[in-house]
Amino acid sequence: MGSQVSKQIARRKAVSTEKKALCDLCENCGVEFPGCDYRPQDRKKWMAGLNPEKVHLNKILWPGTHDSATNKIGIPCITRPFAQCQSLSIYKQLVLGARVIDIRIQEDRRVCHGILLTYSVDVVINDVKKFLAETDSEIIILEIRTEFGHEDPPEFDKYLEEQLGEFLIHQDDNAFNKTIAELLPKRVICVWKPRKSPQPKAGGPLWSAGYLKDNWVDTDLPSTKFDSNIKHLSQQPPVTSRKFFYRVENTVTPKADNPVVCVKPVTGRIHGYARLFINQCYSKGFADRLQIFSTDFIDGDFVDACVGLTHARVEGKA
């Protein structure tokens, strides 16, 4: 019992030390970067606002959400706080400006996070199609994967093609160098990541797992995650020379050996430092690696930071 208490005290101290480290870094370095003052007139249509004929896919800093479809997961006030990473529906996230959606599913096509369940993936698809019907020039990256420990839904690739076929941008290495206008009216890059089923074929309507990569660092320590994100990003090639999307996630996750195990207060340790992360990428000389930036509980300021840097890149200021 005594050793367990000592361990808990040590963990709390580590969290406190790392929170202070990020706070001090922010005070010393600030949060400025090219485009940091830019605010889109309409987050729902921010890509259209940047001129689709000028915006190349590899110039975009894509704002994304982590575990996107968890707004109604589990049982309210009982299991939900341990798995909920977003408070908004997929449709509302897209309206707010998110353009990369991260969906985890199980065999019966229900969305899940670990062992906890929520609505059918049909809800996600309907939200995406509703958003697409209300906009003209917004491109979405829709990542759908079978959750670890679960089986692939039968014939799920056919389901995605049937539901999204008219919008799907086919798997194509040349797409990275194209403008939004050159891809329209196709508007969805759908990355399907099955666990055991065959990967999508080259040139097909769905994109395979290798086209969306990241280095997930499983920790609840904010400075550890921040520094690890910096390290892994620095090892990537620039966006202009790679033929895959690379994601950095501005999140930390609860750990069983820490007394705080609800998602929101834990991820809140790093949530406010998205602008600092972009600032540090510039100060260290590898902001040209930044491509997808995801967060828990997405908000307007996070979107504005990503759109601001995108605007600066499009205008040749970054």
Automatic annotation (TrEMBL):
Entry-linked SMART domains: PLCXc (SM00148)
Coiled coil feature spans: none
GO BP: lipid metabolic process
Residue stretches making up the Phosphatidylinositol-specific phospholipase C X domain: 51-192
InterPro entries: PI-PLC_domain (IPR051057), PLC-like_Pdiesterase_TIM-brl (IPR017946), PLipase_C_PInositol-sp_X_dom (IPR000909)
Pfam families cross-referenced by the UniProt entry: PI-PLC-X
A molecular function GO annotation: phosphoric diester hydrolase activity
CDD domains per record: PI-PLCXDc_plant
Lineage: superkingdom: Eukaryota
PANTHER family per UniProt: PTHR13593, SI:DKEY-266F7.9
Protein name: Phosphatidylinositol-specific phospholipase C X domain-containing protein
Biological source species: Citrus sinensis (Sweet orange)
Lineage: Eukaryota, Viridiplantae, Streptophyta, Embryophyta, Tracheophyta
